[in-house]
Amino acid sequence: MNTSNQFEALFKQFTEQLPKGALELQKDLEKNMRVAMEATFRRMNLVTREEFEIQAAVLAKTRAKLEALEAQVAALEARMQNDSAPSTLDSAS
């Protein structure tokens, strides 16, 4: 369910709880509440669950690549240290 549908469902639940005789008041209240809640949600900088999950997947993929690169760098550093270390044969001559 997307954010727009959730927002509409919330308003429907809220307005259904109002007395049926106060239809004009109900419409005015719904309009004012909608404006107030939309403004509040905008200030909160919320993201949808879908956006969050996409970013979480991107982060997991990036983390896996970073770990692979760190292992590759460690292997290269170890190989460089072994190549630059004087061998025992060279020092014995």
Write the layout of secondary structure elements.
Layout: H1 3-16, H2 23-43, H3 49-84, H4 88-92
Number of strands: 0
Order of helices and strands: HHHH
The number of helical runs is 4
Strand content: under 5%
Average pLDDT across residues?
83
What's the N-to-C terminus distance? Answer: 77 Å
Coarse structural class = mainly alpha
Query: Stretches where pLDDT falls below 50 for ≥5 residues?
Result: none
| Major β-sheet profile | none
Number of discrete domains: 2
Query: Rounded to an integer, what's the Rg over CA atoms?
Result: 31 Å
Determine the fraction of residues in helical runs and give it as a percent range: over 70%
User: Rough shape?
Assistant: rod-shaped
Brief synopsis:
The protein is mainly α and 93 residues long. It is built from 4 helices and no strands.
Name the descriptors.
93 residues; mainly alpha; 2 domains; 4 helices; cytoplasm; ubiquinone biosynthesis; UbiK; Ubiquinone biosynthesis accessory factor UbiK
